[in-house]
Design a protein that fits this description.
The chain is built from ten helices and 19 strands. By secondary structure, the protein is of the alpha/beta class. It has a single domain, classed as FAD/NAD(P)-binding domain (3-Layer(bba) Sandwich), CATH 3.50.50. The strands form three sheets. Strands 4, 5, 6, 7, 13, 14, 15, 16 and 17 form a nine-stranded mixed beta sheet that branches. Strands 1, 2, 9, 10, 11, 12, 18 and 19 form an eight-stranded mixed beta sheet that branches. Strands 3-8 form a two-stranded antiparallel sheet. A hairpin with a 6-residue loop joins strand 18 and strand 19. It is globular and about 65 Å long. It starts with a strand and ends in an 18-residue tail after the last helix. The mean pLDDT is 94. It binds flavin-adenine dinucleotide.
């Protein structure tokens, strides 16, 4: 019996399955891991309609170059002679200009707002999910004048696009974080942002989909495809060949390799990041980004997660302790009284963000094949954007009109 095959059981694959099963589609998810740990499980869990500017933005090139010389910096590209990396960097540089950013903003904003609305529906529909979803907003905390200027300018831009943004003084920050000192020149608060526990979301979704009859083929690696007449007929795996009605390619940082097997180009690099949980003492109450260091702070009551660093590393998954130290040292730089403890290596989580070179996801039909869809390349916003991506893919799958305009996410834009 042929079903729709989703390759990749990360959050994008799971939300796609969620919306497809609602349409009565028979779905099988294939993943080469045991589906216990991937980029979707230990990230900072932020839902960020405020993030309307893609990673490939004008300021990133100068900043990126200066960060290349520090082993603890928040962004780093592993310099090496690798054609894929050179091609990706070239496309990144080409995209990092004002014109492209302005083109991208409405697409990202609408995708984010759709996703946030879907999360709120999801929370109401599944009160049993215990997502730890907190709709308190996100504070972008800064310490330097240079970053203050950027953040305040960004707040104006966000308002221009209809998003709420408030500039906070140190005394406003003290009112929000009343338990401990925050070393800050100020902050921008985006009240429309939220955060949740990504591990809880992931486990719930997986269990729910299993109950709804979605088939999971774990520990199964996709190695190739059988094609005929502009369609893919079978997915070839290390466990055998599986017939497919339609295919959704949601392979995260490995989606470029899967696209290559199908003969089209999907430029993608893994952006490695780390996180660790700590006892939340004294309690930090508000989700924040420590802006100079790009460290995400996600409190969950008695526990708190710190995450950060973007190391363009292909698909290398080793842990670079210097970068973890960079995240760790940021904690007391901003919260001097927080009782931070350096995590043991086994407690450090790592994930590869699937980064497209222009910072926009790929959502839509693959070039050439009429039965292959792609949902990937969400970079640092995969949790935030997964519900909307899943919904849009389900709509395309069912030949329904899309909820929002998706032209900016065209899969074949680099072919
Ligand atoms: C430190 C850190 C913090 C982050 N914080 C946030 C945040 O606050 N908010 C936010 O929105 N996002 C955040 N992100 C980004 C987010 O985690 C990712 O964008 C998201 O998890 C990507 O999901 P995915 O489903 O595309 O990929 P993945 O979760 O990587 O899933 C892809 C799956 O495909 C499988 N696969 C690949 N190739 C094959 C194959 N050939 N055969 C079978 N299976 C295959 C893999 O095994 C994997 O399980 C963060 C990331 C990091 C690293």
């Amino acid at each position: 019996m042929k079903s729709t095959i989703i390759i990749g059981g990360g959050i994008v694959g799971l939300f796609s399955a969620y919306f497809l099963q609602k349409e009565g589609v028979e779905v099988t998810i294939i993943d080469r891991t045991d589906l216990k740990d991937n980029c979707s499980t230990g990230n900072a869990g932020m839902i960020v309609p405020s993030h309307i500017i893609p990673l490939a933005a004008p300021g990133m090139i100068t900043k990126g170059i200066s960060w290349m010389f520090s082993s603890k910096s928040p962004f780093y590209i592993h310099p090496r002679l690798d054609y894929k990396l050179l091609q990706w960097c070239l496309l990144f540089f080409k995209s990092a200009n004002q014109k492209q950013v302005e083109k991208a903003i409405p697409f990202l904003k609408n995708l984010s707002l759709l996703s946030k609305a879907l999360y709120l529906n999801f929370k109401d529909e599944h009160p049993e999910a215990h997502l730890a979803l907190q709709e308190k907003g996100l504070m972008m905390i800064y310490q330097t004048e240079a970053v203050e200027k950027e953040e305040v300018e960004f707040a104006h831009l966000a308002r221009k696009y209809g998003l709420e943004a408030e500039v906070l003084t140190p005394s406003d920050i003290r009112n929000v974080e009343s338990n401990l000192e925050v070393m800050a020149k100020g902050a921008v608060l985006f009240p429309g942002d939220a955060h949740l526990d990504p591990g809880a979301l992931y486990s719930f979704l997986k269990m729910y989909l299993e109950e709804k009859g979605v088939q999971f083929l774990a520990n199964t690696q996709v190695l190739g495809f059988e094609k005929s007449g502009g369609k893919v007929s079978h997915v070839l795996t290390d466990k055998g060949s599986i017939p497919a009605e339609k295919i959704l390619l949601c392979g995260g940082s490995w989606s470029g390799e899967l696209a290559k097997m199908l003969g089209f180009s999907l430029p993608m690099m893994g952006g490695k990041g780390y996180s660790f949980l700590q006892e939340n003492k004294p309690e930090i109450k508000h989700a924040s980004i420590l802006t100079e260091m790009k460290v995400a702070v996600s409190p969950y009551g008695q526990q708190i997660r710190f995450g950060g660093t973007m190391e363009i590393a292909g698909t290398n998954q080793s842990i670079n302790m210097n970068r973890v130290k960079g995240i760790f040292e940021s904690i007391n730089r901003y919260y001097p009284d927080f009782q931070a403890e350096f995590p043991k290596e086994e407690n450090i989580w790592k994930g590869l963000r699937p980064c497209s070179p222009d910072g926009l996801p790929y959502i839509g039909f693959a070039p050439v094949y009429s039965n292959v869809l792609v949902g990937s390349g969400h970079s640092m916003m995969g949790i935030s954007l997964a519900p909307a991506t899943g919904k849009l893919l389900a709509e395309l799958h069912q030949q329904k009109d899309n909820s929002i305009e998706i032209g900016g996410f065209e899969v074949g834009r680099f072919n």
